[in-house]
Amino acid sequence: MKNLNSESVNNKERYKMSDLSTIFDSFNANALKLEASYKQLQDRIVEIDREMAQTNECLNKKVQELNKLTRYLNSVLEGMYCGVVAIDMDGRIETFNKSSEKILQVKASDVLGKSIQVALAGTNGFNKLLLESLSTRENVFNQKRVIELEDGSSRYLESSVTILQDTSGTLTGLVEIFQDLSEIRELKGRLYSVNDLISVGTMAASIAHEIRNPLNGIAGFACLLQKELKGQNLKLVDYIILGTKNINKIVTDLLLLARPITLNLRSCKISEIIDRSLDLVSEESRKKGDKNIHIKKDYLFQNNNIVCDPERLQQAFLNIILNAIQSMHDGGELTVFVQEVIEDGFCGVRIGFSDSGEGMSEDTMENVFEPFFTTKTDGTGLGLVIVRKIIELHGGEVSIESEKKEGSTILLTLPEIQNEIPKAFSCVDTKNS
Ligand SMILES: Nc1ncnc2c1ncn2[C@@H]1O[C@H](COP(=O)(O)OP(=O)(O)O)[C@@H](O)[C@H]1O
Ligand SMILES: [Mg+2]
């Protein structure tokens, strides 16, 4: 019994040993596997480290490139002659370059990040274009307008507004690019003056100036004589007075051409300026008991406000109307029309003076804008030169359609310049009231 027991104990011991050996073997095998996995992991970590270093290097390069590009774009933006103002879709100013600061006389640091409505409220008329585009979501091209700065001075700007989108087509903001054309406009005025001075002659201008004083003296004495004299002698004095008036007109026209003209711009209704010119002419005609001339007004464009110098325009209109009346020897019809012009980004008005007079020959048509060209015995040949100078100073154009014996049409095209007028440019009417 005892032997049997010891044998079973030995068997148990043997089984235990073999179990242990199996466990050890499996442990060893797993340890080896673990070691291999650890090795693989270590290799992978080395590889990832290398990849990360490469990615970092790439990223650094990209950041450097991006910084370089940003610096480059910023320097382009800052060096640009044009003003650049960008806003986000909430109307907050994101970009305001150096030229914008210079043109609008506002510091970028005072406006960046602020709402354009609040930040540029002092610059009358500037924010209107961006705000309009923000609400209409439409681009604007080459719009000309006059704005008023905080110090009361004005700027003549040409602007384009572009809506910005990201790659997915989502609207991200708007950018206005604008240039200050005030100086160019002024230079253009001076250039005309220089050219006119050459063609009319500096001498003529200085002589004209010298003529004025004695001429006024002659006119004054003639008026005194008028009261003293009677009959044939009185008629002679009348001729003297008429003569002085004519010379005075030539002198005035000459001086107008010789001197630089500074336009006194305001927002005015073109039709009102035409009406005033027609009134002046009909008053003159009535005084003289002139021929029967019927005037027809075709003001098709009701809201014909433009920024202009009304006194100068009236002068131009008067010259054209007088020519028309003088061309209709036996009376006739003068049609004056005002139309709106919107073509190729140009917004403005077209004014036409169409007469049923004698018309012009080809030779006259070629020379009408030459100083002193006239087909009249009492003409000065300066009327249309002055018209062209005034209209071109306003950024407009003059053209003539005419046929001998059929009548003539003088066409003037004037830019509107802007839609909304700063308060400082309020209409002539405020002056009259
Ligand atoms: N409406 C018109 N009809 C016919 N001829 C015209 C008309 N307007 C201008 N002209 C011609 O152009 C010339 C130059 O006109 P302008 O410069 O006003 O000078 P002026 O009236 O002193 O002659 C006129 O002499 C005339 O021959
Ligand atoms: Mg004339």
Strands, helices and their partners?
Blueprint: H1 2-79, E1 83-88, E2 93-96, H2 98-104, H3 108-111, H4 116-119, H5 127-136, E3 140-148, E4 154-165, E5 171-180, H6 182-200, H7 202-228, H8 231-258, E6 266-269, H9 270-288, E7 293-299, E8 305-308, H10 310-327, E9 332-343, E10 346-355, H11 362-367, H12 383-393, E11 397-403, E12 407-415, H13 428-432
Helix pairs in contact: 7-8, 9-10, 10-12
Adenosine-5'-diphosphate is lined by residues 319, 323-324, 327, 355, 357-360, 364, 368, 373-376, 379-385, 408.
Features:
binds adenosine-5'-diphosphate, disordered C terminus, 12 strands, Beta-Lactamase, binds magnesium ion, Heat Shock Protein 90, alpha+beta
- Based on CA atoms alone, the radius of gyration comes out at 42 Å
Shape: rod-shaped
The CATH class of the largest domain turns out to be Alpha Beta
Q: What is the N-to-C succession of helices and strands? A: HEEHHHHEEEHHHEHEEHEEHHEEH
CATH fold-level name of the largest domain: Heat Shock Protein 90
* Range of strand content: 15-25%
- The appropriate CATH architecture of the largest domain is 2-Layer Sandwich
Description of the molecule:
By secondary structure, the protein is of the alpha+beta class. The chain has 3 domains: 101 residues, Beta-Lactamase, CATH 3.30.450; 75 residues; 170 residues, Histidine kinase-like ATPase, C-terminal domain (Heat Shock Protein 90). The strands form 3 sheets. The protein has a 5-stranded antiparallel β-sheet. A 5-stranded mixed β-sheet has the order 7-9-10-12-11. A two-stranded antiparallel sheet has the order 6-8. β9 and β10 form a beta hairpin. The radius of gyration is 42 Å and the shape is rod-shaped.
